Amino acid sequence: MNAASLPNKLDELRELSSANKAHLIGISETWISSQFSDQELALTGMTLFRNDRKTGIGGGVAIYISSCLEVHQVHNLEFNNLEESIWCSVRLSSTSRCLVGVIYRKPTADTEYDSRMLEGLSRSIRLGFTHILILGDFNLPRVNFAEHTYTGGDNSIEARFYNLIDNLGLYENVRSATRWRNSQTPSRLDCVFTNEEFLVDNLSILAPLGKSDHAVIAFSFVIKTKLRYPNNNLRWNFKRLNVPALHDYLQQVVWDVHPQIDVDGHWDFLLHTLLCATDHSVPQTVPKSFKPPTVIKNRTLRLLSRKRHCWAEYKRTNNDGAYRQYKHIRNTCTKAIREDRLQYQTKLMDKFASNPRSLFRYAASLRQAKTGVSQLLGLNGPTNNDGDAANLLAAHYSQTFQPADINFIDDSFISNSTGLSEVDLSADLVFRKLQHLRLDTSPGPDMVHPAILREAASILATPLSVMFSHSLSRGKLPENWKLAHITPIFKGGRRNEPSSYRPVALLSLPSKLMESLICDGLNDYLLSLNFFSPQQHGFRKGYSCITNLLTAVDKWTSILDCKGKVDVIYLDFSKAFDKVNHLCLINKLKRLGIKPPLIDWLTSYLKNRHFKVRVNFTLSQAMECPSGVPQGSVLGPLLFLIYINDLPQQVTSDLLLFADDVKLWREIRNQDDTQALQDDLTRLQSWADDNGLTFNTSKCKVVHLRHVANYSYNLGNSSLVVSQVEKDLGVLVPHDLKSYANCDKNAFRANLALVTLKRIFGQFDGRTFHTIFNSFIRPHLEYGNIVLPPHSRRTRSLWSVSNGEPRNQFEDSNLSLTKNASVH
């Protein structure tokens, strides 16, 4: 169907999809942009694939496909720069696949675009799919496949298009007009192509969506496949946890274990007990899939039914009276749907006024897209199923771990204290940790849920404390705790490239609980030694991105105010957390006075870790983690700070750290200063080599503050690029240290958030505006303003984000850009 603005017709589309139990919906002219998240456009039980127009307004295509089908997006055809098309592969069986494509050809398409479209169609046939279904609005009314005719010369697009379809052996299945506009003659613009003659059955022309002039084409696609229903698997419903039953079960457990049992056996006993307690106290239900809220009321549904009848009558009679009657009821339906949406938004506001927390959950659920993994392209070709995709991603992530063959001992700090061999793992501390567990935390690979641990904290504190003490005294971690389940999250780029997916690790919650206790004890010990470098602002209490930036900008401006010059070098480590050398880290811990059994436990914690990648309900093979600190862990950030702590001691220039983000600078008075800064870069490169880390030189930049330089800096064998504006911990820092770049970025992001929220909630009222503005808009407006205070002109640009909202609402929100920051 041609939607001519999908967002405006989404409520009607949801009703149409539900009424027809659709498995596949192809849409052209979606008119959506990156401002819309997939969740805003979601249909119940459907997976959305979309390709928005990159420049200008209008255009865009999308495919909704049932979640019961195994489907992946295909990117091969997009290599030909066929902008407004989208292609998906549906797995029918082990030997057959169906290619589904949607194409939009704009009426003003030039010869070059038409050639790319025709070549893309040709390539679709050569990809080896057993079934092909191509939908789209081609805007070629003078091609009549029913009568095997076309109007135009031999080199016209009509002739080329008709001959190509004929040569490819494709069948066009639409035999009647699909577009009606006022007094114009109805035309056939929308097509349904298949590679077999009888794949399409029961094709009918339904009433258009909203006020679109294109009809909806409905049909049955006759193929044989096996539907999958993953959501039918029973799962524990922890919202219905029976706390008394949980307590009764656990109180009957004999927690004593044999003194000779090993750590793995001890944990297996606890795990078995926890899972049995879960079975005993938590009911199993079929999880509900995301279901967009019901907006359209019953009276409007009856109007939509009348609209369909009037449309059928108009098609049957084709007279002006029937069209006027259809147009009247169509407009009435559009108005009724708009009123239903407004009433729904008003009810939302009433609900959120009394329960602001539900506002945050609802807004987050619609703004955050829950996208899966597309078909991936590996060395052996594209993946065909979830298992192949999981294994390909696991192999890709494992390439990050590159342990260097080093045996380095850090002599920069030698502890004169008695050292640290144990930490407090008492039941009282365990109980307090259990009480503060967040219930929205996902369980790890062992499936121990935070609700079980928190609700039974008073009973489980002692058994867990005994288990933790046993693990520490033996200097060994249970092997099950060393397994991580990785969920790939799309971060941008091409969906068929493994590098476009960020790994997010899930670890055992009891393991993270013990890590937290170890981390507290180790951190207190290091603080007593005054160990941490004052240049490190990451993962430390009382330090933040803002303290890092304020410290740097204060020193820079002090030099510049005295007519000095400053060169700032931004350094970027490549996957630093994943490349931490275990042997080097253990040696550094030993030099700090960490002794057995704690050092043995930390060694066991780092060694022999594995991970599996999960795609939908399929896990990859286990892959080893020979280097790095565990992602998603509690102890990992502290261990990384220990690893990198001696880096500032390598240089004579000023340096600041935020975890692995490094900026190095020096006042430039003469050539000796540039050479000193270059020598510092050389020493940092040497330190990185000794510690098994590497710099990503393509992301390492130089900023010459308020001066132009005719010299360059080198890092290793690479010359560093000079940048005019650099993003420093989320704040845009230009070479002149003015606030224009950061203000424009803040205004853009705040306006984007405001437009999204207005689209979700409609017009704000005074009751909820303060909550919405202060929670979702104001953080964007104010970030970094204390570092680079906005000028008065830029302050006005930030205030302009109101975007038509009443001025007094923004005044009442106490936006303090001019009160809390200097205005120049």
From TrEMBL:
- Which Gene3D superfamilies does the protein's record reference? Endonuclease/exonuclease/phosphatase (3.60.10.10)
Organism (species): Schistosoma mattheei
| One Pfam assignment | RVT_1
Which residue range or ranges hold the Reverse transcriptase domain? 470-733
Q: Which InterPro entries match?
A: DNA/RNA_pol_sf, Endo/exonu/phosph_ase_sf, Endo/exonuclease/phosphatase, RT_dom
Single GO MF annotation: catalytic activity
Highest taxon in the source lineage: Eukaryota
> What protein name does the entry list?
Reverse transcriptase domain-containing protein
